[in-house]
Amino acid sequence: MKHFTKLATAVALGTVLGTAAIAQELYTPNLAYRTGPFAATGIPLMNGQADYMTLLNERDGGIGGARIDFEECETGYSTEKGVECYEKTKGQAIVTQPWSTGITLQVLPKTNVDQIPILAPGYGFSPMADGKVFQWAFNMPAGYWDAADMIVQYLESEGSLEGKKIAFLHLDHPFGKEPLPVMEMHAENKGFELLPIPVGLKEMQNQSAQWLQIRRERPDYVVMWGWGAMNAGAITEAVKTKYPMDQFVGVWWAGHDADLKLVGEDGKGYKSISWSFPNMDAPVMQEIKERVIDAGLSQTNEEEMQGVFYGRGLVMSMILAEAIKNAQENFDTAEIDATQLRWGLENINLTEERIAELGMEGMVPPFSTSCANHTGHSGGWMLEWDGTKFVKASDLLTANVEGYSDLIAEASAEYASSNAPWEMNEECSATN
Length: 432
Prior knowledge:
Layout: H1 2-16, E1 26-27, H2 39-60, E2 68-69, H3 79-89, H4 101-107, H5 111-114, E3 118-119, E4 137-138, H6 144-157, E5 165-171, H7 174-177, H8 180-190, E6 193-199, H9 208-217, E7 221-225, H10 229-240, E8 248-250, H11 257-261, E9 271-274, H12 283-293, H13 302-305, H14 308-331, H15 338-345, E10 349-350, H16 352-357, E11 367-368, E12 381-385, E13 390-392, H17 405-418
Parallel strand pairs: 1-2, 3-4, 5-6, 5-7, 7-8, 8-9
Antiparallel strand pairs: 9-12, 10-11, 12-13
Helix pairs in contact: 2-12, 2-14, 3-4, 6-8, 14-15
């Protein structure tokens, strides 16, 4: 009965919107990476994203009467292949999901011409927060500069950082360098020494040189901006060299259950900032198990389903679905286009009440977007590995965006100048 009630609601929405009972599909391609050196992290994320859209198609007949075509274009996390996928899919797509900071940076200049929104949840170019300048790009619910700020806040809550040394172990890639402006700003303002330690793509699984430097420098903390195989390599090296795990903190892409399961109890105390949490008691998890996984419509398994990254994939697709719904209702049509979806992405309002309606209690913090704010700055929780799983180790942390708003403005202006003529949304002010 619950299924038929929701399906009836979807058909009713289609009637209200003046659409046919069966609308055309909405094409929302995902530039996936199920292969290559980052596949271990990509697979659960892609499975979560796909399963949420499958749930909507199976349970509700799509969104507003329009089914979702969530086709994947495999990139292997290669920037070159990612651009090829973008060019291949952009003709009918209402959104592009690049899934790499490198791909995002390559696609970003094309957005003003192609007028297709980029949706890069929790990744990409941090100044995309400035919606006036980057009118087609979104990195909600939180960006890398938010993550850096929240990590520093958390470390400072453990005691003054004055005179301390923080090693910044990062992938030598655009993704790994993203947080440096905020980390450097905090180092200067709070009086700690920042020690950048890059990890090349060919060194991800053999970081003996980097950890030799860490042993020699004896930092008070190691902050890791890692991805894929780099994370597992770093965590195993930290255990091998007996670095105190409670002084080791990662970005949200360095909080993957499978990496910590390699070391089990020895990884106890390791932490990762996160804007998502895998709440297995949330109603959406049971619905997905019954309607998608048990029905044989998923590539996931029970163990993966319990992990941080699978749950994060669900949240990502939920955000996109909310934007689609917003646009359908505002423009009175189920078959929205890319321009209308941009409006939907600029008008996200995920309150605690709405998150509960979606069956996702405790899985994502509340946030909202606007014309000027394309990131949302949701905040996040510090998660801690307890030896078998990640648990919440803090209340919700919120980034002090005002503290680096000048950096956002400067970087946005510099980007627009370097890519002139760069069209901005002149109707958008800092307050709307």
